Amino acid sequence: MTFREILSAMLRRWYITILVLTAAAVATAVLANDGGTYTTKTVVSFTRPATSSLSPYNGTTDPSVIAFAGTVAQVVNDGRPPARYSESDAPYYGAGVRQGVLVELANSGSQWVSTFGRSDIELQIVGRSYDWVESQQRDLVDQVLAVADAEQASLAIPSADRIRAIVAPLTMRIEYVSPSRRGQAAAAAAMLAVALTVSAWGSVMVDRRLSRKRTTPATPPRIPTRHILEGSPT
Q1: In CATH, what number is assigned to the domain containing residue 45?
Q2: What does UniProt give as the signal peptide span (predicted)?
């Protein structure tokens, strides 16, 4: 089907185009007025005993410390694996999440291959209000610290010899994320393109169906035949 034929179908079935464009405009306005979201990516680092996060050999790349951090993350997640995305550094709100938490061991790999090179637990939190994100952040940090302490206490490890869990202070910041003017314009253009595509498809389908009904010949009425019995008068 050529572009001219598609355009002709859209002109003949103009009401479909108007309906789809109106629905797209309403959806775009609702999404635009939805506002932004609050987010944070808090990091809890695990180090060797009697070291700090700034020490050159603090154990953040030690396989044993990384394994322990992974165990803590698994306990906090109740044994459920965290969601994986194609890009390891993609923000949690970039996946369309507007309220939720993601607890995972720092992964420099991808959706298909995991690479754990640091003993950092990342707490990604997305919420509609600052207070909710702050509350979740506080609860998750307390939970990570408590699990790390409980796991080592269950093995009767002395306090001086335990792996330390340190919260990176700069990662405690909560930010507000909202779309830019350019992003809003790009989203509106994408919505318009989708609406035109859908309206073109709908107009062609309806036009074909109605044209087929008009061109189908009507079935002539069936005339009942009379059976004349032998010997009966005509």
Answers
A1: 3.30.70
A2: 1-32
